[in-house]
Structure prediction request, 53 residues.
Amino acid sequence: MGFTLTAPTLERRYVRLEPRGHEHAAGPAAAAEEDRGAYTFTWEARLEKVAKA
Prediction:
């Protein structure tokens, strides 16, 4: 027993949001190959620090 899950495409005047598929994989894959040296300066929350707040 199986089913197919479909998601709607949401579209307005200046934006279009559509479900991601295999045809969208090339862009994020190329972005993942770039130099990540600049990410060193990106702040990310750590659980132990957030839990104390």
